[in-house]
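From the thread on structure requests for the teaching lab: each student submitted one protein with a one-line request. Submission from student K.M.:

"Model Glutathione S-transferase N-terminal domain-containing protein from Actinomycetospora endophytica, tokens only."
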Amino acid sequence: MIDLYSFPSPNVRKIVIALEELGLAYRWVWTDIGAGDQFSDAFRAVNPNSKVPAIVDHDGPGGRPIALFESAAILLYLSEKAGGALLPTDPARRWDAMCWLAWQVANHGPMAGQAVHFLRYAPSQGVHDEYAQDRYGREIERLYAMLDERLADREYLVDEFSLADIACFPWVRLADGHGVDVSVHPHVAAWSARIAARPSARVRIPDPRKEDPTVSGWSAEQFATLFRSDAGKATR
Ligand SMILES: N[C@@H](CCC(=O)N[C@@H](CS)C(=O)NCC(=O)O)C(=O)O
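Reply posted by the TA:
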């Protein structure tokens, strides 16, 4: 059994899709990153970097429990556990998939994160607003143009559905939030619709906060916890 430390977020969704595709048994461990659960000693024993996703596989190598963090490492672990599934068997194509997986976690995810931060969350810094929005906006557009070019003549990033697609898809679904209009990247839009049709992509990540009708969006306290700053209070 695998414990998945979860919160409704694109990086967690990658792991959910992989677990579902591979048919591996898992259970949710709700980790409220708005309430600061990621900074608890118990959580930091699993992920010293205080972020979701993280997993504990109670049946890890040698039958012993293993804790893993960082979405790319978790995806590769799950693939290996399932005998190399979700990666091409051909070595050249497998390495191609690795490149796109690394591209997502080192470029697409972080740049999208910065773009949404400066578009939606950062308190106004006057003249500097435009600078940050321009910098991250341009970089994220460049990355989507690159993705679109890659998908122009193939159904999936390395022809067959792989970890590379799983890593990119949940972020592409949030493109609006980081200021990207996916309709101007038609190959990305078609690829995204293809993946969205898979049952694994439709699984709902449980969110106990949604059962509380008084909770909607981020409160100033949750915002301050998440960004470890009081700055957000100025915007609310
Ligand atoms: N590079 C990490 C990024 C993980 C990440 O940024 N997780 C966010 C949610 S999507 C988080 O836990 N944020 C809480 C925080 O920064 O305190 C990965 O790919 O797993």
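TA comment: The beta strands are 2-6, 26-30, 54-57, 66-69. The helical segments are 10-22, 41-46, 71-81, 91-121, 127-151, 163-172, 186-196, 220-227.
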